[in-house]
Amino acid sequence: MFYLSAQLTGGFLYCLIEILYRGYTHVSMFWLGGLCFLCIGGIRRTFRDGGAAQKMLLCAGVITLLEFLCGAFVNLMLGLAVWDYSSMPMNVMGQVCITYSAAWCLLAVPAMGLDVLLCRYAWGMERQPHQCQSASAPIYASRCGMRNLTNSSM
């Protein structure tokens, strides 16, 4: 359920951002946004000791790769023309560009913060200096590399 709620949250918020920015969205963006949010949370939890800039750049790289793969399928193979960055500087096949990669780098910060909130408050997980611990969701916590608070000595 943790991954489903993260997927739905990321998909909904990405579509909302896109509607506010350009006035419309596409169902493929819901699934891509959710997958990107899952990856951002995974990066945040996996690279806990990494600096913020490293995590932001890694998130931007992963999101840009996912956007390219989705664009190659949705736009180039299926011909749906959901987006076209061919007029943007430093674009690759009109599917990704440096401008939006930089935007993903910046949007990674609030997305990582939202992942923390979901872990802590929606699923009862707490982040400690080198470990995440769970008071009420040991099954989901174990999937995030966390352990149960009731089994720990503090």
Description:
The chain is mainly α and 154 residues long. The protein folds into 2 domains: 2-122; 126-154, no CATH class. Helix content is 64%, strand content 8%. It is built from 5 helices and 5 strands; from the N terminus they run H-H-H-E-E-H-E-E-H-E. The strands form 2 sheets. The protein has a 3-stranded mixed beta sheet with strand order 3-4-5. Strand 1 (91-92) and strand 2 form a beta hairpin. The chain is globular, with a radius of gyration of 17 Å. The relative contact order is 0.13.
Overall 3D shape: globular
Number of DSSP E strands: 5
Number of helical runs? 5
Element-by-element helix/strand order? HHHEEHEEHE
Please state roughly what percent of the residues sit in beta strands, choosing from under 5%, 5-15%, 15-25%, 25-35%, 35-45% or over 45%: 5-15%
From the alpha-carbon coordinates, what is the Rg to the nearest angstrom? 17 Å
Q: Report the oligomer.
A: single chain
Class based on secondary structure composition and strand pairing: mainly alpha
Main sheet, how many strands, which sense, barrel?
A: 3 strands, mixed
Fraction of residues in H or I helices: 55-70%
Mean pLDDT: 86
Q: What's the N-to-C terminus distance?
A: 28 Å
**Domain tally:** 2
